[in-house]
C-alpha cells in the first residue's frame, strides 16, 4: 500500500496555500512542515478542482503553480521550503561518504516525530521517525545539520567527523505558530487581539512537588497572583487574576476543562494537562459572559499520540519538614514571664513559686526551687518529617484515526503536622476518534477519589501557645493539659489532639465529557458537547471521650456529613471559517445550558459508652446531637457569538457577545448582555517594517474593551425567606419561625468593564520575547452582601453597590541568554502590579477582619488603633484620664476627646503588595538541567495577630520570644509591649499598628537539578527517556516578618489576605524525582 | 427558557407562602421568644456568657478565670470602648427580636384565619415581648431608634434616635395592649402570661419615675398599683425554701412568673458551667468550664449570718459533694453562686434548667419600694409593708413585721434577694444608688468604687455607647 497513492478531493478557488495544506492533512495521513511566515510571504492562492486524485499528483498540481515554493516528501511528512532550497530528489552525483544518525527529543526527553533535518547549504533533508530517530547521508563538505520543528527553536548542530548527533530541541514557547485555546475554539497566537497567557505541560510540572494545578501555575503568568496561604496538605492556593474585582467573596476565575465550564481544578491532576491558557482581559473572557468576570482558566488535557505508543512513569518521593519555627519562649523564659506577671500586683506570687499553692501537677512539673523539669519545643513535637510521594503512569498511543491517552496517578501528600495527610487516586482517559470523515468524537473521562485527615486551626494555635514547661506526657503516660498550670487558659494537648481527634474528608468525583464535531462543509462545523460532573463529599469526625474540650463533656462525639453535587452542561455551537484574498474570518455562535444541584445531609450523636465505635456506628451514641439536610439548585442558559476578522495578517478585529441568564436573579433581571471588542495591529508584517524584521520578527499592538458579568452569589439570593430554629416550651421542643432575609427582586448582574492595551514583541529569532499589558477594570453594580443596621432586623442583604477600579501593569520577559547545542540558559521574569480603588460604595463602611473598605481608598486596607507605646511613670496623671496606668498601652487619641473610641482608629497599611515578581531560570548543560525559581512580594503589610495575642495574654499561654526584654518595666519605660500582668488585670486586644508588620519577602520557591540520560545508554535498556532529579521547594525565605510566613491569611484570601492568626505552618520539601518512558 | 431559570427552593418558606394556617401563625409567634436567650451566648473565651456582663458592671462579682479584654471593661469599669463587641450583641439582642415582633404583629393583626380570642392571645404575647426588648434597650442605651413597623425597603434603613420618653410611651402602650389581650395569669408552658405583663408594666412605671425620665410621683403610684394587682391576683407565691427555686418541677409556676425556657439537649449555653469553680473542682461530671462569674467574698460576707439566703446551698455554696462520690465533700476556699446550680447537669453535663426572668419576690419588693418612693421615701402602707415583709421574713424567719419600710431598705433587700439575677444594674440606673457590701448600706452611685472595679462610677458609665459598627451602618446614630 503506497501512502503516496492516497486519494483525495479538493474543490478550492483562490484559497491560501496554508488552508489547502491543512485540508490535505485532514484528508490524508500526511503532516506538513513549514514556516508559516515563509509560506505567507511566498505562497500564491490555490485554485484546484479534482476528485479522487492521488496525493503525489495533487502535490505536483499544487506546487507547479507556486513560483517560489517547493516540497519534499519524507516518509509521512511533506516539508515545504523556498524553491531555491527545495530538495530535489537525492542527486546521484553526491558522493556518499557516511551516515549520521541520532535521536531528537524535547526538553522532557519525549521523542519528536517529523522533525525536519536539513543538511545546511545542500537542500537535502529528512525527518525523524516515530521514535524520534533519523539517519541521513552526508558528504565530506557537509558541516552542519539544521533541525527545525514547529513550536521549537531551530537548532544547528555541527557534524564534522561525527556519526551520531542526538539533539534536544527547546520549546519555543511564544512561537508564532503556537495555538491558543480560547473559548469555543482555538486561535493562532499570532492572530490574537486579546490578553491570553499560556503555560504548557513542561512548565506546569517543572516543580515536581506541585500536586495541585494552581500551585503549578504559581509565578508563571504576569497578572495572575497565586498565594499559598497555608501548609496544610491538600489546601488549594488562592488565585487572583488582575486584582479583586468583586466585593462578594466569589473572586475565583472560571475553570474550563476541555470545554466543560465550571470544573473544580483540584480534581484535575497536573500530569494530564497539556496546556493552560489564562484569559485575562474582558474580551477574551467575555465569551463566557457572566462567568468570566474574574478571568478564565482554560485547561486542555493531553491527547494520545498518533501512530505510536509511549508509556511513561513519573514519580517524586519527598521529605518535608517545618520550614521556619516561630520564636517563642522556652520553659525558663516563660516561667520568668509568669513570675513577673503575678508580681504585677503586690503580694501575688506565681503558682509554681508559691509554697502555699499545691496544685496537682506541681511536683511533676517543678523542682523544689521552682525550676522546670521539662522544656518542650511544641513546634517540634507536633510536627514531623513527612514523606509525601506521588506517582503517575501515562499511556499514550493510537492509530491515524483513533488516539488514546490514559493516565493513572496517585499521590500521598503527607502534612508536616502529625497524622495529617491527603491522598488522591485519579484516573483519566482522553479518546479522540475520527469516526467518519465528517465526524470527530472526543471523549474525556476523569475520575478519582481523595481522602484526607485534617488538622484544625486550634492546633496551629496550640503548637505556639502551649506552655514549654509541660511535657507531652508525664512519666505515668498521661498527657499534659495546659490547665495543669493554674491560671493558664486551659487547652487540650496538641499532640494528643493530633493523635486522637479523627477528622476525615473524602471526596469522590467524576467528569465525563463527550464532544462531537460535525464537518458540515469545509467552512462550517458544528460542535456539540454534553458533559456531566458528579461529586460526593463525605466527612467523618470522632472526638473520643478522652479528649478534653472535644468529646469529654459529650462522652464521645461523632459526626458524619454527606454532600452530593450533580451538574450537567450542554453546549452547541457552529464555527465558520472563511478566507478569500487577504481576508480571514472566523465566526462562532452557540447556545449553552447548565444545571447544577447539590444535596447534603449530616448527622451526629454523642454519649458513647465506648470509644470503639467512632463514626462507624452512630446509633450507639445515646444523644442525637445533629440532624440536618439541604438542597440547592441553580441553572443557566446562554447564547453567544464571536467574530474574528484578520486582514492580511496585519489588521485584526474581533467582537463577542453573550446573553446570559441565571436562575439566581430576580424575575426582572434574569438575563444580562455582555459585549466586547478588540483590535490588533501586527506592525511587523507591514511593508515599512521589513528593514527591522530581521531583528524584530514580531511586533503586535493590541487593544480590547469589554463587559463581563458576575453572578457569583448564592442560590435563592433574591428571595425573601424565613428561618427555622428550635425553642423549648416547658421542655417540649417547638420549631419556631423567624425573619431571615428580605426579598430583593431588583438585584441585577454585576458588570465589569475592562480596557486592555498590550504589546507583544519577539526579537532575535525568539531569543527575546516580551509581553506587556496595561488594564483598567471598573466593576460596577457590585454584588455585595451589605451589612444592615440591626434596627432593620436583618443581618444583611444582597445588593448592587457602587464601583471599584483595578488598574495594573503586567510585564513578561523570556530570554534565551545562551543557546548552544550543549548549553542553554533561559530566564523568564514577570512583574505584576495592581492598584485598586473603591470609587463608590454609597458611603458604606465595609468591615473586614482587621481592615475595612471605604470610598476613596484601595481594597485590603488594614485598620485599627495606633499604638504609641506605653504610658510612662511620669505620665500617670495623663494616663488616668484614659483609665490607664503606667505600663499600660498608650494609643493615639486621634480625635483628642480624652477616651479611646472608634474614631481613634486609622489605616495601618495594605495587605496588597505594591508589586509582585517572579523569576525562573533554567540552565541546561548536556544532560544536566538546573532550575531556580524566585518569588517576591513588595510593599505589603501583614497583621500578625498571633504575636499580638500571645504578647497580650501572657499567662493564658506561651508568648513570643523577646517579650521579657520588650515589655514595659519601670526601668524600660519606652516599650511597645505593656507591662507583664495577668489577663484579669486588664489588657487590650484590638488590632493596632503594632500588629501590622512589613510583609515583603523574597522566596527561593524552588531549586532543582535534573539529569537526562544519554541515548546510547538508554538504547541498550530499550528506554526512550530517563531522567533523575533533586528538588527543594520553599528552599529559602528572606523576610522581616516575625511570624511563620508572610504569604498568609487565616481568613478570606480576597479581602483578608495578610491576616495571620495561627495558620498551618509551611513545609520545606526535598524531593527526588524519576521520570522514565518506553 | 424563563421556566428553566425559575427558582423553587425546597428548604425554607417565604413570606408569600406564610400566614396561611394556624400552625404557621403559632410558629411565628413562638419565634418572637427567640430573643430572650440571645444574651446567653458566649464569646471567645472559655466560660463567658454575655449576660454576665450585666452583673460584672454592678461590681460585686469577678471572673475567677481571667477575662478577655472586652469583658474587662465591664469587670474593671475601665471605660467602655464603643468598639466592644459585647455592646453590639446587646444592641442586636434588642432589635432582631423587635423586628420579629413587628412583623408578627402586622401579619397576625391582618389575618382572619383564626378567631379573635386566639388572635388576641397571640398578639398579647408579642406586644409584651416587644415591650420587653425595648425596655432592655432603652435602659442600657438611653435614646435609641424606635421602630414598630416591619422593614419594607432596604434602601431606607437609616433611622434616627428617638427621645427615650417616646420609647417608654411605646412600651407602656404595648403592655396595655397585652393587658387587654385576655392572657391567663399563669402559664405552665412558659408563655407570656398576665403576671409577666403586669410585672413588666410595674417595672416600667417604676423606671420612668426614676432617673431615666423622672416622670413624677404618679408613676411610683402606678408602679405600686400595678404590682399590687399581681399580688392580689393570688396566682403566685414565694417558695418556702430557696432550694425550691432551682427545682425542675417548679419551673413556670409558684414564684416563677416568667422564665427563659431551656431544654438540656439544645440549650448550648455554658451558663451553668460558667458559674462553677475555677480552678476546677471535681464537683461535677464535667467541671472544666467554670470560672465565668463568682460573687466577691466581701459581698457574700455582707449577708447577716442569720440570713437564710447565705446558708450553704441557698444562694451560694462553699462546698459540694464530690461528683460520683457523694460521701466525700469538696470544700472551696471562696463562695460560688448556687442560684443556677443544675443537679441534672452535674450528672449529665448538659444543663437545660430554665433561667428566671421575673419572680414573685421581685414583684413584692418592687411594690414596697414604689410605694415608699411615692410616699416620699418611707411608707407604712400595709400592702407595701406586707410585700417587703414576705421577702424579708423568708430570709429571717424570726424577724417581725415592721410598721413601715424605707425605699433604701427595700432597695438593699433587692440587692440581697435578686443578686446575680441581672436586675440590679437596672435598679442602679433607675435610682443612681447601689449597695455597698463593705458598709452593708445603700450609697450614692456616682463616685462610688465597687469592690471589683478599678475606678469609681461616673455619669458616662451609666449609658452604654451606641456600638461603633451600628453607627457606621447608620450614621444617624451619631449624635
Structure description:
The complex is a heterodimer of chains A (1078) and B (479). Chain A is mostly beta strands and 1078 residues long. Chain A contains 15 helices and 54 strands. The model of chain A is unreliable at 85-94 (pLDDT under 50). Chain B is mainly alpha-helical. Among the domains of chain B are: 20-183 and 465-477, Serine Threonine Protein Phosphatase 5, Tetratricopeptide repeat (Alpha Horseshoe), CATH 1.25.40; 271-353, no CATH class. In chain B, the strands form 5 sheets. A two-stranded antiparallel ribbon of chain B has the order 1-3. Chain B has a two-stranded antiparallel ribbon with strand order 2-6. A two-stranded antiparallel ribbon of chain B has the order 4-5. The longest helix of chain B has 26 residues, at 85-110. The radius of gyration of chain B is 23 Å and the shape is globular. The N and C termini of chain B lie far apart (52 Å). The model of chain B has no long low-confidence stretch (mean pLDDT 94). Classes of the chains: A mainly beta (1078), B mainly alpha (479). Chains A and B meet through strand 31, strand 35 and strand 36 of A and helix 1, helix 3, helix 4 and helix 16 of B.
Amino acid at each position: 500500500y503506497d501512502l503516496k497513492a492516497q486519494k483525495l478531493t479538493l474543490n478550492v478557488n483562490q484559497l491560501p496555500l496554508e488552508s489547502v495544506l491543512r485540508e490535505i492533512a485532514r484528508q490524508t495521513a500526511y503532516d506538513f512542515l513549514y514556516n508559516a511566515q515563509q509560506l505567507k510571504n511566498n505562497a500564491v492562492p490555490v485554485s484546484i478542482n479534482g476528485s479522487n486524485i492521488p496525493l503525489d499528483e495533487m502535490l505536483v498540481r499544487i506546487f507547479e503553480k507556486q513560483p517560489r515554493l517547493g516540497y519534499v516528501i519524507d516518509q509521512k511528512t511533506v516539508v515545504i521550503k523556498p524553491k531555491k532550497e527545495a530538495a530535489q530528489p537525492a542527486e546521484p552525483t553526491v558522493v556518499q561518504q557516511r551516515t549520521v544518525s541520532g535521536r531528537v527529543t524535547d526538553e522532557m526527553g519525549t521523542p519528536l516525530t517529523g522533525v525536519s533535518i536539513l543538511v545546511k547549504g545542500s537542500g537535502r533533508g529528512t525527518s525523524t521517525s516515530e521514535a524520534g530517530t533519523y539517519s541521513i547521508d552526508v558528504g565530506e563538505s557537509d558541516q552542519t545539520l539544521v533541525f527545525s520543528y514547529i513550536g521549537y527553536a531551530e537548532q544547528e548542530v555541527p557534524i564534522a567527523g561525527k556519526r551520531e548527533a542526538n539533539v534536544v530541541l527547546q520549546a519555543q514557547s511564544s512561537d508564532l505558530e503556537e495555538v491558543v485555546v480560547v473559548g469555543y475554539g482555538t486561535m493562532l497566537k499570532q492572530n490574537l487581539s486579546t490578553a491570553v497567557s499560556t503555560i504548557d505541560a513542561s512548565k506546569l510540572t517543572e516543580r515536581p512537588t506541585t500536586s495541585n494545578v494552581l500551585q503549578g501555575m504559581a509565578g508563571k503568568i504576569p497578572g495572575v497572583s497565586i498565594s499559598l496561604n497555608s501548609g496544610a496538605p491538600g489546601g488549594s492556593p488562592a488565585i487572583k487574576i488582575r486584582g479583586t474585582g468583586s466585593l462578594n467573596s466569589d473572586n475565583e476565575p472560571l475553570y474550563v476543562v476541555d470545554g466543560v465550564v465550571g470544573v473544580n481544578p483540584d480534581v484535575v491532576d497536573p500530569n494530564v494537562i497539556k496546556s493552560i491558557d489564562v484569559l485575562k482581559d474582558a474580551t477574551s473572557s467575555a465569551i463566557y459572559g457572566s462567568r468570566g468576570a474574574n478571568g478564565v482558566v482554560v485547561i486542555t488535557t493531553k491527547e494520545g499520540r498518533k501512530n505510536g505508543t509511549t508509556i511513561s512513569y513519573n514519580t517524586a518521593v519527598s521529605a518535608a519538614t517545618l520550614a521556619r519555627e516561630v520564636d517563642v519562649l522556652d520553659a525558663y523564659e516563660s516561667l520568668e514571664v509568669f513570675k513577673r506577671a503575678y508580681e504585677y500586683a503586690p503580694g501575688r506570687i506565681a503558682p509554681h513559686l508559691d509554697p502555699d499553692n499545691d496544685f496537682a501537677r506541681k511536683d511533676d512539673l517543678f523542682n523544689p526551687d521552682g525550676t522546670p523539669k521539662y522544656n518542650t519545643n511544641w513546634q517540634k513535637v507536633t510536627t514531623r518529617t513527612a514523606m509525601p510521594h506521588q506517582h503517575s503512569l501515562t499511556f499514550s498511543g493510537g492509530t491515524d484515526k483513533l488516539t488514546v491517552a490514559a493516565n493513572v496517578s496517585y499521590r500521598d501528600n503527607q502534612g508536616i503536622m502529625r497524622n495529617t495527610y491527603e491522598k488522591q487516586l485519579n484516573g483519566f482517559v482522553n479518546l479522540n476518534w475520527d469516526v467518519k470523515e465528517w465526524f470527530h468524537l472526543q471523549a474525556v473521562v476523569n475520575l478519582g477519589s481523595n481522602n484526607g485527615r485534617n488538622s484544625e486551626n486550634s492546633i496551629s494555635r496550640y503548637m505556639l501557645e502551649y506552655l514549654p514547661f509541660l511535657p507531652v506526657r508525664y512519666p505515668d503516660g498521661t498527657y499534659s493539659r495546659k490547665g495543669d498550670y493554674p491560671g493558664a487558659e486551659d487547652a487540650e494537648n496538641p499532640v494528643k489532639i493530633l493523635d486522637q481527634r479523627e477528622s476525615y474528608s473524602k471526596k469522590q468525583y467524576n467528569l465525563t465529557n463527550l464532544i462531537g464535531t460535525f464537518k458540515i462543509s469545509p467552512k462550517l462545523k458544528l460542535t456539540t458537547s454534553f458533559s456531566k460532573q458528579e461529586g460526593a463529599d463525605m466527612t467523618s469526625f470522632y472526638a473520643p471521650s478522652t479528649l478534653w474540650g472535644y468529646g469529654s463533656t459529650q462522652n464521645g462525639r461523632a459526626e458524619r456529613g454527606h454532600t452530593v453535587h450533580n451538574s450537567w452542561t450542554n453546549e452547541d455551537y457552529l464555527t465558520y471559517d472563511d478566507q478569500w484574498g487577504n481576508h480571514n474570518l472566523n465566526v462562532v455562535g452557540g447556545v449553552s445550558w447548565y444545571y447544577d444541584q447539590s444535596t447534603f445531609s449530616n448527622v451526629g450523636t454523642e454519649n458513647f459508652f465506648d470509644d470503639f465505635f467512632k463514626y462507624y456506628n452512630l446509633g450507639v451514641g445515646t444523644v442525637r446531637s445533629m440532624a440536618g439536610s439541604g438542597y440547592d439548585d441553580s441553572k443557566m442558559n446562554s447564547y453567544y457569538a464571536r467574530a474574528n476578522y484578520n486582514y492580511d495578517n496585519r489588521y485584526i478585529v474581533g467582537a463577542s457577545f453573550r446573553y446570559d441568564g441565571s436562575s439566581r436573579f430576580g424575575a426582572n433581571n434574569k438575563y444580562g448582555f455582555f459585549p466586547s471588542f478588540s483590535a490588533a495591529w501586527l506592525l511587523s508584517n507591514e511593508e515599512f517594517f521589513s528593514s527591522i524584521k530581521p531583528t524584530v520578527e514580531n511586533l503586535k499592538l493590541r487593544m480590547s474593551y469589554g463587559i463581563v458579568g458576575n453572578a457569583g452569589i448564592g442560590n435563592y439570593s433574591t428571595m425573601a425567606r424565613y428561618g427555622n430554629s428550635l425553642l423549648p416550651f416547658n421542655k417540649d421542643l417547638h420549631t419556631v419561625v423567624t425573619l431571615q432575609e428580605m426579598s430583593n427582586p431588583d438585584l441585577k448582574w454585576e458588570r465589569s468593564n475592562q480596557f486592555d492595551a498590550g504589546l507583544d514583541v519577539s526579537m532575535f529569532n525568539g531569543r527575546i520575547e516580551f509581553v506587556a499589558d496595561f488594564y483598567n477594570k471598573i466593576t460596577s453594580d457590585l454584588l455585595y452582601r451589605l451589612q444592615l443596621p440591626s434596627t432593620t432586623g436583618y443581618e444583611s442583604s444582597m445588593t448592587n453597590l457602587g464601583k471599584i477600579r483595578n488598574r495594573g501593569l503586567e510585564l513578561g520577559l523570556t530570554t534565551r541568554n545562551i543557546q548552544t547545542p550543549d548549553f542553554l540558559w533561559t530566564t523568564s521574569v514577570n512583574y505584576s502590579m495592581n492598584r485598586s480603588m473603591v470609587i463608590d460604595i454609597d458611603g458604606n463602611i465595609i468591615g473586614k477582619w482587621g481592615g475595612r473598605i471605604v470610598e476613596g481608598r484601595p481594597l485590603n486596607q488594614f485598620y485599627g488603633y495606633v499604638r504609641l507605646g506605653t504610658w510612662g511613670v511620669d505620665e500617670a496623671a495623663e494616663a488616668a484620664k484614659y483609665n490607664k496606668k503606667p505600663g499600660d498601652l498608650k494609643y493615639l487619641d486621634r480625635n483628642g476627646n480624652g477616651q479611646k473610641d472608634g474614631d481613634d482608629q486609622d489605616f495601618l497599611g495594605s495587605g496588597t503588595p505594591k508589586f509582585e515578581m517572579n523569576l525562573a531560570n533554567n540552565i541546561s548543560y548536556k544532560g544536566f538541567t538546573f532550575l531556580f525559581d524566585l518569588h517576591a512580594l513588595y510593599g505589603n503589610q501583614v497583621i500578625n495577630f498571633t504575636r499580638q495575642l500571645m504578647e497580650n495574654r501572657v499567662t493564658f499561654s506561651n508568648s513570643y520570644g523577646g517579650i521579657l526584654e520588650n515589655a514595659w518595666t519601670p526601668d524600660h519605660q519606652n516599650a511597645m509591649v505593656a507591662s507583664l500582668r495577668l489577663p484579669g488585670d486588664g489588657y487590650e486586644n484590638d488590632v493596632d499598628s503594632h500588629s501590622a508588620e512589613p510583609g515583603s519577602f523574597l522566596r527561593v520557591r524552588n531549586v532543582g537539578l535534573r539529569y537526562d540520560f544519554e541515548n546510547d545508554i538508554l538504547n541498550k535498556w530499550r528506554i526512550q527517556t530517563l531522567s533523575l532529579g533533586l528538588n527543594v521547594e520553599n528552599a529559602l525565605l528572606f523576610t522581616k516578618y516575625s511570624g511563620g510566613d508572610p504569604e498568609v491569611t487565616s481568613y478570606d484570601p480576597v479581602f483578608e489576605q495578610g491576616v495571620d492568626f495561627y495558620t498551618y505552618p509551611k513545609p520545606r520539601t526535598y524531593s527526588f524525582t524519576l521520570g522514565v518512558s518506553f | 427558557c424563563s421556566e428553566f431559570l425559575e427558582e423553587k427552593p425546597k428548604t425554607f418558606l417565604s413570606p408569600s407562602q406564610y400566614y396561611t394556617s394556624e400552625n404557621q401563625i403559632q410558629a411565628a409567634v413562638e419565634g418572637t421568644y427567640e430573643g430572650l436567650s440571645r444574651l446567653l451566648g458566649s464569646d471567645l473565651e472559655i466560660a463567658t456568657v454575655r449576660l454576665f456582663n450585666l452583673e460584672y458592671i454592678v461590681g460585686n462579682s469577678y471572673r475567677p478565670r481571667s477575662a478577655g479584654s472586652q469583658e474587662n471593661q465591664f469587670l474593671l469599669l475601665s471605660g467602655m470602648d464603643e468598639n466592644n463587641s459585647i455592646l453590639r450583641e446587646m444592641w442586636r439582642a434588642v432589635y432582631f427580636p423587635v423586628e420579629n415582633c413587628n412583623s408578627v404583629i402586622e401579619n397576625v393583626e391582618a389575618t382572619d384565619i383564626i378567631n379573635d380570642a386566639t388572635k388576641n392571645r397571640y398578639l398579647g404575647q408579642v406586644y409584651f415581648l416587644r415591650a420587653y426588648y425595648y425596655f432592655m434597650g432603652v435602659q442600657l442605651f438611653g435614646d435609641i431608634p424606635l421602630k414598630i413597623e416591619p422593614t419594607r425597603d432596604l434602601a431606607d434603613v437609616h433611622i434616627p434616635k428617638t427621645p427615650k420618653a417616646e420609647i417608654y410611651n411605646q412600651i407602656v402602650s404595648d403592655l396595655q395592649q397585652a393587658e387587654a389581650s385576655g392572657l391567663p395569669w399563669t402559664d405552665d408552658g412558659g408563655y407570656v402570661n398576665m403576671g409577666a405583663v403586669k410585672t413588666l408594666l410595674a417595672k416600667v412605671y417604676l423606671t420612668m419615675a426614676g432617673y431615666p425620665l423622672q416622670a413624677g410621683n404618679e408613676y411610683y403610684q402606678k408602679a405600686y398599683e400595678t404590682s399590687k394587682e399581681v399580688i392580689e391576683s393570688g396566682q403566685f407565691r414565694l417558695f418556702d425554701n430557696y432550694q425550691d427555686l432551682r427545682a425542675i418541677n417548679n419551673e413556670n409556676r409558684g414564684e416563677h412568673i416568667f422564665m427563659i425556657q431551656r431544654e438540656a439537649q439544645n440549650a448550648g449555653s455554658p451558663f451553668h458551667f460558667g458559674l462553677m469553680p475555677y480552678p476546677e473542682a471535681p464537683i461535677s461530671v464535667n467541671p472544666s468550664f467554670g470560672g465565668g462569674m463568682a460573687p466577691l467574698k466581701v459581698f457574700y460576707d455582707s449577708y447577716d449570718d442569720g440570713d437564710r439566703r447565705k446558708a450553704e446551698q441557698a444562694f451560694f455554696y462553699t462546698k459540694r459533694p464530690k461528683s460520683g462520690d457523694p460521701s466525700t465533700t469538696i470544700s472551696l476556699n471562696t463562695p460560688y453562686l448556687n442560684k443556677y446550680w443544675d443537679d441534672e447537669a452535674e450528672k449529665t453535663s448538659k444543663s437545660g434548667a430554665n433561667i428566671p426572668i421575673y419572680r414573685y419576690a421581685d414583684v413584692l419588693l418592687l411594690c414596697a419600694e414604689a410605694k415608699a418612693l411615692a410616699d416620699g421615701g418611707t411608707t407604712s402602707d400595709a400592702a407595701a409593708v406586707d410585700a417587703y415583709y414576705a421577702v424579708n421574713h423568708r430570709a429571717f424567719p424570726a424577724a417581725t413585721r415592721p410598721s413601715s419600710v424605707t425605699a433604701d431598705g427595700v432597695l438593699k433587700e433587692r440587692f440581697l434577694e435578686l443578686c446575680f439575677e441581672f436586675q440590679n444594674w437596672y435598679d442602679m440606673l433607675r435610682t443612681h444608688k447601689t449597695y455597698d457590701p463593705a458598709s452593708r448600706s445603700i450609697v450614692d452611685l456616682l463616685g462610688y468604687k465597687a469592690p471589683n472595679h478599678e475606678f469609681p462610677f461616673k455619669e458616662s458609665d451609666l449609658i452604654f455607647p451606641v456600638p461603633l459598627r451600628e453607627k457606621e451602618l447608620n450614621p444617624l446614630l451619631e449624635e
